[in-house]
Amino acid sequence: MKASALKRQMDFEVPVNIVDVRERDEFQEAHIEGAKNYPLSEMTEWIDTLDPAEEYVVLCRSGARSTQATWQMEAKGYKVVNIEDGLMSWPGEVVRGGNGQ
């Protein structure tokens, strides 16, 4: 999925579960409003806490880490969509600060 498609969904207030798999310091620098921070490096700690009935949109800075996370989440049976070019391609405003939980 392109970041612009996610932005359109959010503009129309379509509910979306955004999983940002960047490290905590990266998340605090800038993130999409409403995103939850689940670092890829801590995936074994959080992956089983997600609701398998929900669909998740996964992103990172450029798409590499989110691709890895998407593969692992799909292997566990989660419904996931990867943001192809990550936060770098986000066309909207970003939030600074916050803990992502």
Offer a concise description of the structure.
This protein has helices at residues 3-11, 24-29, 43-46, 64-75, and strands at 17-20, 36-37, 55-59, 79-82. The model has no long low-confidence stretch (mean pLDDT 95). The chain is of the alpha/beta class.
The CATH class turns out to be: Alpha Beta
Distance between the termini: 24 Å
Q: pLDDT below 50 for ≥5 consecutive residues: which ranges?
A: none
How large, in whole angstroms, is the Cα Rg? 12 Å
How many β-strand stretches? 4
Helical content (DSSP H or I, runs of 4+): 25-40%
> Number of helical runs?
4
Quote the average pLDDT: 95
CATH arch. level architecture: 3-Layer(aba) Sandwich
Protein name: Rhodanese-like domain-containing protein
InterPro entries: GlpE_sulfurtransferase, Rhodanese-like_dom, Rhodanese-like_dom_sf
Task: Explain what this protein looks like in three dimensions.
- This protein is an alpha/beta fold and 101 residues long.
- It has one domain (3-89): Rhodanese-like domain (Oxidized Rhodanese, domain 1, 3-Layer(aba) Sandwich), CATH 3.40.250.
- Helices cover 31% and strands 15% of the residues.
- It is built from four helices and four strands.
- The chain has helices at residues 3-11, 24-29, 43-46, 64-75, and strands at 17-20, 36-37, 55-59, 79-82.
- The chain has a four-stranded parallel beta sheet, covered by helices on one side.
- The protein is globular.
- The mean pLDDT is 95.
- It comes from Exiguobacterium profundum.
- It holds the Pfam family Rhodanese.
- InterPro entries: GlpE_sulfurtransferase, Rhodanese-like_dom, Rhodanese-like_dom_sf.
- This is Rhodanese-like domain-containing protein.
- Residues 16-96 form the Rhodanese domain.
